[in-house]
Amino acid sequence: MINTENAVVILIDVQGKLAQKVVNSDALHQKTAQLLRACQHFDVPVIWMEQLPDKLGPTSPSLAALLPDNTPIAKQTFSAYAHPDVQQLLTTLNRKQVILCGIETHICVYQTACDLLRAHYHVHVAVDATSSCHANHHQAGLSMMQQHGAWITVVESLLFEWQQQAGGDDFKRFLSLIK
User: Where is the Isochorismatase-like domain (predicted)?
Assistant: First the structure.
């Protein structure tokens, strides 16, 4: 199971017009925002990636607003892990459970997952916080990552794994994250 002390989230390329064109864009943004709010609540670090932001545009404003103390890392490679800053951050954080969200599932999320798995990280893909421009590409990307050893999950499941128990004031605050 995923725990807050060993987890890190990588937000991949939810930016520009592409973020509006992917399948279920509204749901993608909603679930990604829910995950980012949970990261704040549980103090889970987020590594924020942007693919060629000068060409593709910035991260969707609704998501960028949830990362006020964070700075995006611009990349040219499809894999976020191929960027040396990401490798250094992961080494510094010393967290082995990496949760991936973003676009496109079959390209940047997939290549990031493969590189992380080769580097012996435990990769979890939030299926409802990832997307592609075509539904079959999204499904193929998920299938390919699972074949390589990634765990496929949903945001709500992750949040309940982080919460671990019901009851108390912390649980009441937690419930506001999932509504």
Answer: 8-156
